[in-house]
Design a protein that fits this description.
Strand order of the largest sheet: 3-2-1-4-5-6-7
Largest sheet: 7 strands, parallel
Number of strands: 13
Oligomer: single chain
Shape: elongated
CATH topology of the largest domain: Rossmann fold
Strand content: 15-25%
CATH superfamily of the largest domain: Glycogen Phosphorylase B
Number of helices: 15
Helix content: 40-55%
CATH class of the largest domain: Alpha Beta
Number of domains: 2
Structural class: alpha/beta
Order of helices and strands: EHEHEHEHEHEHEHEHEHEHEHEHEHHH
Length: 381
């Protein structure tokens, strides 16, 4: 049995953390024993410990610029590698790789890292030149952007290390229609809308780069045209530190324009939340590397509406399994929302095709199986 140690600098529940959670719930126990080193508590820590995973926690979150903090992480990593006989270290994000790479080299343990995020800064460049045996990406777009930012320092990057694209996914869940109706009734009562309303959801952190303001601008356009009758938008996600002012601006816009929009908080059960929705909207103003919430919605039949750039374009084909709008253009998003709202036949057709394509290509069992195959390839190389 091979032992893998996952390094997780964050403990929220975005795409990277959701993927890490899946490695704990769907790993092939006959081939792998997984351990997790988290830098801080949070939803991921709670989920992993509740699932009985092998979770290890630093005494306090480290700060990258502090030498003493980096040393504490390295000491903890050495301790775990020795005590657990770790065969491979998997770092989540470039930050995880920066903390882990040299220690793994010193300990003679192969190290891989997963670039989940938009590749853009010095951390991504630094992680690329540090020792590793493979880079994992979640889309062609992420792979291309990572390679592009590496160009100035390409001669420093370890050669002959594979780059593997692993499509993320979610579990295939069958939610009884009665359960969906009961949840929609609860939401309707809580947020004061009709149970037969057209529901549009966004599932993301409340951050400016996620484009919630673009979504609201689209709704303002539709309201001016009297096209928001029997409509409700639900914004699923938590505020993140440093984004309080942005949340305040969004809330002010909702109130000033009397928009049928509610902040629904963190979705404890994303699949159920999105099963109550007619569409799941991604309005990011920076290209998404992948877009896991898109898949979560597709898996339960919520039709995706996504911008025409980044990873989402590799998932959604306009008019076949969703709709595509011009990135950052509220009028284009408004047009696609209107199209879906006024054409019930199209909505039902897309809902069926989007669920079929998601279950075939983006189920989490397939994703974790692909990851395990890659880990074995690295370990046995």
């Amino acid at each position: 049995m091979h032992k893998v140690l996952y390094i997780c600098p964050t403990s929220g529940m975005g795409s990277p953390e959701t993927f890490i959670k899946q490695t704990a719930s769907q790993v092939n126990s006959e081939a792998f024993e997984n351990h997790y080193l988290l830098f801080t508590t949070g939803p991921l820590y709670d989920e992993l410990t509740a699932a009985g995973a092998n979770v290890h926690l630093l005494s306090q979150p480290p700060r990258l610029l502090f030498i003493a903090d980096r040393q504490k992480v390295q000491d903890k990593l050495k301790e775990l590698i020795n005590a657990l006989n770790i065969d491979l270290v998997h770092s989540t994000s470039s930050l995880g790789a920066i903390y882990s790479a040299w220690t793994c080299r010193q300990m003679g343990v192969p190290h891989v890292w997963f670039q989940h995020s938009p590749a853009s800064g010095w951390k991504d460049r630094l992680a690329a030149i540090l020792p590793h045996k493979g880079l994992i990406v979640n889309s062609h777009y992420t792979g291309k952007t990572q390679r592009r930012i590496e160009n100035p320092i390409r001669f420093l990057i370890p050669r002959n290390n594979p780059i593997e694209k692993i499509l993320l996914g979610t579990p295939i869940i069958e939610i009884p229609s009665a359960e969906v109706q009961a949840e929609k009734s609860r939401l309707a009562q809580k947020h004061n809308f009709n149970t037969d309303a057209f529901v549009a959801s966004m599932l993301c952190r409340v951050q400016e780069r996620k484009g919630l303001h673009v979504f609201l601008s689209a709704l303002i356009e539709l309201k001016k045209q009297n096209k928001l009758a029997n409509f409700q938008a639900l914004l699923w996600g938590e505020q993140t530190p440093g984004n309080e002012a942005y949340f305040g601006r969004l809330n002010k816009t909702i109130i000033e324009h009397q928009l049928p929009v509610a902040f629904a908080g963190r979705a404890k059960h994303p699949s159920l939340a999105l099963a109550c929705s007619d569409t799941v909207v991604n309005a990011s103003v920076q290209p998404e590397p992948f877009g896991l919430s898109i898949i979560e919605g597709m898996m339960v039949g919520a039709v995706p509406i996504v911008p025409n750039e980044g990873g989402p374009t590799e998932i959604v084909s306009h008019g076949k399994n969703g709709l595509v709008f011009r990135a950052r253009q509220a009028s284009s998003l408004a047009q696609q929302l209107e199209t879906l709202m006024k054409d019930a036949d199209l909505k039902n057709k897309l809902a069926e095709s989007t669920q079929t394509s998601a279950r075939q290509k983006y189920n989490s069992e397939r994703a974790i199986g692909h990851l395990e195959t890659f880990h074995l390839k690295v370990i046995n190389n």
